[in-house]
């Protein structure tokens, strides 16, 4: 780019010396060139800039490019961008990039590069192809801004979210157990004491007290179950889902077809994720879909387990659903276990939530509480 | 089991209430036999059949508030959604009610059921509407004294 604009400046110089040129035209030309070089100056000040030929060979880099990459201009010119490639992005990513710019379209995205000293840095990148009369690119201009800090913060935030969800799940498990083993047991003793008094000819009013205590026991059990069903830890995700679905059907009056071929127990983290995401998706069906029927399919695909929650109800448009906390937390949960979550929905045509969770084999002898979540 | 006369009588009364108020929806909830789950055997103005499958229990929702405390309550779907409690009110969701007023039915000093009136648009129930609902609730309670909703198979509690 330097060379090219340099050439132009020479041309302009020649032109200005040239005889017979309209002075007004000459002035306008001069102004345009001044503007052009001002814009280039501003661009170089603000961004990391590089220009390559159609094969990707670097022909120009500005000071900022040299500064961030740690290479000198001499080291960069004549090379292609492989020199700063970090290997982070797959072949498909690069192919898509080249396909876009080679067809004359602008490419935008975030790229992780590697400096000469091995340091990784992230750049928000725009690549603009300059095309000739036939629409074929003869030069690519890459304008970048460093976003390393942003990416690091993003990663930290995600790690925090994952940790937060783990802490929440641990806390739920603890409170659930305390309710069950503590208050639940005490109430049970109380109930037995009342029954004994009644058997020994105690006052008739004790009978009413007895049924109050029974009701209280049921409430405590219900609370513990809602927080985190112990069946999830003791028997695994499939029985836990079955029980959840039974409750769900009775609560919402929605029939759920549950179809499951999982015969093994994945690790606890995967089980929790499967349970919570299906729970969240079904809650959304109950609240928004307006249907009397839904389907839950859980499939063992070997390296991963797939859970699909499907309804033929109201559906929604993603951008109109707001940042629904439900969708967000399902995505975060999936991400925290390196899983994938896909939500397909269209107004009037139902919603399908698909979760894929990679699963390791469960360690033998591990129990509910000593496994790190 | 309800005899035919009772069933028809209750249905007619719900229709009457719905027209007299007027309101979009009217339902009678009763505790099923073991006294734990609130079912909705009688409705008027329903938009679908989901009410028949709904059974509410536990410490939240109508069973945990109106039934337990024995006091009438005004419900607004928007407020419940904001407080993340709307899911505890499946009947409001199934019938897409925006506003509702729930009155406890008493029999022999115990709360045995609920009369719920509801609207699919935002509605503030005036004093005379609330009084009408409460009066009708008493009449229904008398008619049904001794009756309990037909229960589904009792479920083992799950731990």
Automatic annotation (TrEMBL), chain A:
Residues 107-159 form the PAC domain. This is Oxygen sensor histidine kinase NreB. The keyword ATP-binding applies. Its main location: cytoplasm. GO terms for cellular component: cytoplasm; membrane. Gene3D superfamilies: 1.20.5.1930, Histidine kinase-like ATPase, C-terminal domain (3.30.565.10), PAS domain (3.30.450.20). Keywords: 4Fe-4S, ATP-binding, Cytoplasm, Iron, Iron-sulfur, Kinase, Metal-binding, Nucleotide-binding, Phosphoprotein, Transferase, Two-component regulatory system. It catalyses: ATP + protein L-histidine = ADP + protein N-phospho-L-histidine. NCBIfam families: sensory_box (TIGR00229). It comes from the Bacteria. Residues 1-11 have a biased composition (Basic and acidic residues). Residues 274-361 form the Histidine kinase domain.
From TrEMBL, chain B:
InterPro entries: GAF, GAF-like_dom_sf. Gene3D superfamilies: 3.30.450.40. Residues 5-154 form the GAF domain. It comes from the Bacteria. This is GAF domain-containing protein. It comes from Cohnella nanjingensis.
């Amino acid at each position: 780019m330097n060379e090219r604009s340099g050439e132009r400046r020479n041309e302009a110089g020649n032109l200005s010396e040239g005889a017979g040129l309209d002075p007004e035209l000459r002035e306008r030309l001069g102004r345009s060139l001044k503007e052009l070089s001002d814009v280039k100056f501003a661009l170089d000040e603000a961004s990391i800039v590089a220009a390559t030929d159609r094969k990707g060979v670097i022909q120009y880099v500005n000071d900022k490019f040299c500064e961030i990459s740690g290479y000198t201009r001499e080291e960069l010119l004549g090379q292609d961008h492989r020199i700063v490639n970090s290997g982070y992005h797959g072949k498909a990513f690069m192919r898509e990039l080249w396909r876009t710019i080679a067809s004359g379209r602008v490419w935008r995205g975030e790229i992780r590069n590697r400096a000469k000293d091995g340091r990784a840095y992230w750049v928000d990148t725009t690549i603009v192809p300059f095309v000739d009369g036939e629409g074929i690119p003869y030069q690519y201009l890459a304008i970048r801004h460093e976003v390393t800090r942003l990416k690091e913060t993003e990663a930290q935030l995600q790690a925090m979210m994952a940790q937060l969800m783990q802490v929440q799940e641990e806390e739920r498990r603890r409170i659930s157990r305390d309710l069950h083993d503590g208050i639940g047991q005490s109430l049970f003793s109380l109930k037995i004491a009342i029954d004994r008094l009644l058997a020994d000819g105690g006052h008739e009013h004790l009978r009413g007290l007895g049924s109050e205590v029974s009701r209280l026991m049921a409430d405590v059990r219900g609370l513990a179950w809602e927080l985190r069903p112990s069946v999830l830890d003791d028997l695994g995700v499939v029985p836990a889902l079955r029980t959840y679905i039974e409750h769900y059907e009775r609560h919402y009056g929605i029939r759920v077809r549950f179809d499951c071929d999982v015969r093994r127990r994945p690790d606890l983290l995967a089980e929790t994720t499967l349970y919570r995401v299906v729970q969240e998706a079904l809650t959304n069906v109950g609240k928004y879909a307006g249907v009397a029927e839904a389907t839950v399919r859980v499939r063992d695909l070997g390296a991963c387990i797939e859970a699909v929650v499907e309804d033929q109800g109201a559906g929604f448009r993603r951008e109109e659903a707001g940042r629904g906390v439900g969708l967000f937390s399902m995505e975060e949960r999936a991400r925290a276990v390196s899983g994938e979550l896909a939500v397909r929905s269209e107004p009037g045509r139902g919603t399908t939530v698909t979760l894929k969770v990679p699963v390791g084999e469960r360690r033998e002898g591990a129990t509910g509480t000593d496994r790190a979540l | 089991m309800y005899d035919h006369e009772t069933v028809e009588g209750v249905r007619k009364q719900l229709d009457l209430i719905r027209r007299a108020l007027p309101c979009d929806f009217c339902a009678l909830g009763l505790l099923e036999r073991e006294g734990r789950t609130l079912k909705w055997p009688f409705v008027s103005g329903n938009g679908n059949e989901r009410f028949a499958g709904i059974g509410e229990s536990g410490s939240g929702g109508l069973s945990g508030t109106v039934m337990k405390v024995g006091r009438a309550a005004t419900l607004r779907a928007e407020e419940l959604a904001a407080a993340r409690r709307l899911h505890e009110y499946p009947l409001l969701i199934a019938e897409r009610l925006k506003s509702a007023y729930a009155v406890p039915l008493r029999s022999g000093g115990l709360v045995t059921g609920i009369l719920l009136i509801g609207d699919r648009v935002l509605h503030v129930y005036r004093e005379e509407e609330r009084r009408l609902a409460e009066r009708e609730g008493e009449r229904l309670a008398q008619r049904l004294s001794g009756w309990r909703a037909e229960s589904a198979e009792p479920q083992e509690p799950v731990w």
